[in-house]
Amino acid sequence: MLERVFAPRSVAVVGASRDERAVGRMVLDNIVRGGFPGAVYPVNPNAPEIAGMPCYPSVSALPEAPDMCVIAVPAKAVDGVARECASRGVAAVVVISAGFKETGPAGADLERALVDTVRASSMRLIGPNCLGLIVPGARLNASFAPSMPPAGNVAFVSQSGALGTAFLDQAASYGLGLSHFVSLGNKADVDEADLFAAWARDASVGVVVAYVEAVRDGRRFVEAARAVSEAKPLVVLKAGLSDAGARAVSSHTGSLAGSRHVYEAALRKAGAIQAESAQDLFDLARALASQPRPASGGVCIVTNAGGPAIIATDAAEKAGMPLASLSDATVRRLREMLPAAASAYNPVDVLGDAPPERYAAAVREAAADPAVGSVLAILTPQAMTDAAGVASAVVDATRGRGLTTLASFMGGDRVAEGVEALRDAGIPDFPFPERAIRVLSMMRPSPTRPASGSAGTPVDGDAPSVRAAIDHARAAGRRFITELSAARIAAAYGIAVPDGGVARDLHEALSLAAEAGYPVVVKVASPDILHKSDLGGIVAGVQDETALRSAYDRVLSNARTRLPDARIWGVTVQKQILGGTETIVGVSKDPAFGHVIMFGLGGIYVEVLRDVSFRLCPVTPAEAREMVTAVRSYPLLSGVRGRAPADVDAIVDAIVRVSALVADFPEIDELDINPLIVLPKGQGAYAADVRIGIGE
Amino acid sequence: MRAMIIASTAAYSGKSGVAVSLVRELQARGARVGYFKPYGTMPVEVAGVVTDKDAAYINSTLDAPSPIEAVCPVVRTHAFVEDVLAHRAGSFAERVLHAAEVCAAGRDLLIVEAPWDLVQGSSIGLSAPEVAALLDCKAVLIDRPSTAADLPDAIVCEGSRFGDRMAGVVFNCVQEQVADFLSRRTIPFLASRGIPVFGSIPFDPVLSSVTVREIAEALGGTILTARDSIDQPVETFMVGAMGQEKALRFFRRKANKAVVTGGDRSDVQLAALETSTRCIVLTGAMPPSSIVMSRAEELGVPMVMVEHDTLTAVERMEALFGHTRLHDPAKVDTMHRMLRESVDIDGMLAACGVPV
Question: Taking the model in full, what pTM does it have?
């Protein structure tokens, strides 16, 4: 359906006006000025003609049903126009008008009515409260953005109209061509996922670029984004990931901004490149519009000065972007053709007096080396530098090589001609080399593309007993499943838990400890105490009955003093697992993206260093392993300084099982295994404390 | 005159709830039941007579209400306190006895609600044990057990004050986690001391709920959205001052709640709207973002804007939730049902010398 929106045969502008400053008139002028080849119908009941075109009193009075109707009348009148459009069989309406849910409940009512009208028909709606859309290839500028960008292969969707106009203007000045620009406004109907689905299969689209403030249906977003990223690069800038930024997004869009780690996990699952800034978004759009993503292999830097090359090298190492190690043959040939003072190693320094031919030879040699996946040409203006000549030499030397080529011609007027030549040839140029390296490193495909489809690994969990435990907690009106029951749920999904149970009194505690065998851990059992250790609710290393008696009193009195209102069920007595490393596996539920699973090493690594990794559920074993190896403290698990390697396979298995558990029971909105004690390789991992929260 | 007293170990233990449920239960059984409160502390004027607010309400629920001036013969007002302290007030015993006889006239049973704990009324000879002696009847003690395991000192102490007039105990507002402790430990202990327990009424969040309207009134707030939903019961409240992600986790912990936060905290407000929230109280007189109001309206969640800062608003809310009253027929229905389900009513009546 959106295909028709992007290539309409006819467009009506409802709310076109004789007043040249009116929005409806600006849209009309943009359509006409853009050279739209199809029929254009101004609609306004009070004007016989506008801008020399015959004007129609209503959509019903049009000689044909237009494919698209741009609506720029006051909000109260929009639904009426939309109804007319629907009954005439218009394919899509683009509602520029503001005054909908962004203005309060009365506007929200208008928006709901409009959505009802659209949903009752086959018509699609872009907006309301948007800038409109532009399809340069179809010479369609159905927006009130002043400039029409050149035609190209970048499709850009923006939740912010204003950022859109800025991007368009900048694109025009860089000569960056767009295939589509869509401003989504309130996203009452068409959202990013609809556009992604259309652009994934549109051959005119080479790169998809999105500016997103808030996503409502996260799963749909991820699925659609995946479809794009499997076909072409997708770059997403998600704004509002700081606390203050999140508040701004909330009050601006009426949706929760979502947290950074959830979006990172979602974009990873979607295979999207996450831009961290508007500059990233624009730089990546430029680079991906004309350059392939770098293949395996490192970057080769070719420079006429040492300093900038060192800066680029530092930036590459910081970004985790390897420098290509040139083969002996390449080095030999470079030596033969370069002056003796030049460096034939990467970075290849062709010296300050390098004429275009020397650059050409060096780049050609580098490009031919299989270790090289990308080339960064750095140029500084020296007395004899011919920037334009070097530019065309670089263009010629890399043409048809399938290599990613970026340039950093540093300077101003003296490199301007070279920069222009690079732009004309589609080699993105950046004024500073570290910015080029940043772009290059972000362009790299992620090392392990997430497996296709969203299904996790099936686990032979005992679902009926989990169902019974959840139902029981619900019937009791509990938001949290008791610790004992949570441990049984984990065990039902094959996660090992230590022997033990909940004791209602000291007598029971003593007999549980005798059964499990000393040493034991004694913990206060309360659905209201989330961080037991913070308030002295845990005593470990309890060796005998005397110690148990004092531990029993200590945890209960600590809990009662610190949290007098907490419901206390008794104490949990558990066999202590010795000789392991504490890790944490947690699941939270995001309103837009659903379950998100987290892994980290216990204690300070999670709490102080925030050294954790996140993935969207469900996760495959490969993703689970990635989560474990992704944390900075991973060497502590893999065995450093004489430590025995931990049973990483058991962690991976536990993560996959937790993921399967929450997939089977979507009502779980919080789950923490803290700690998951991991024993040395081959000995397993034990969920020593499991907390499960359930929602509606 | 046949009477029984409903007394309690502490204020807000649920005496009125038990009294009104018992009235309803006995009326349903066809008994002619009267209600009497010797000493009231919430003065209100009804038909030109100063009486007690709760007493007037419960009297109005009787099949045949008693004359309003007899229902609560002694009401604590400022002037009354000064009179008592200056020895200007006479003896109350006769007044109470006379009023009780008016309320009991033509009835099978008079249910007498004691002052709000066993101490109140001592200065004027109207503490619960004294009233029991005056009316020559037995008392049922309502106790709201503490959430931590503890010894039932108040019950034992009051039992000794009532002496033979103590019929037994009803536990009320019993939290899930103490029910087991009560039945395994406390109740057998009390039995060994000769104090029977007629039942344990579980805690029910609906009974302690207040409506959005009550919150708005107590805080002098302006309702900005979802006016149709202001009679929804609110069971508890939470304060939101954290980032959105923590807020979401936090807010999921409680259902049917009010959330107190600043008008400028759109993120907290939206997080609240994602979870089971009955109203959002916006402090500091800061109006919320229009688009968030749209969302609240869409979800039918009232936003109440108040002038108070968050701390003051929280104090007012705490006072409101601590002292909920049973003036809502739905709450009386619930309390009545729970009394029937959890209390041995016949045993209790028998212990009070009331023929079943």
Answer: 0.83
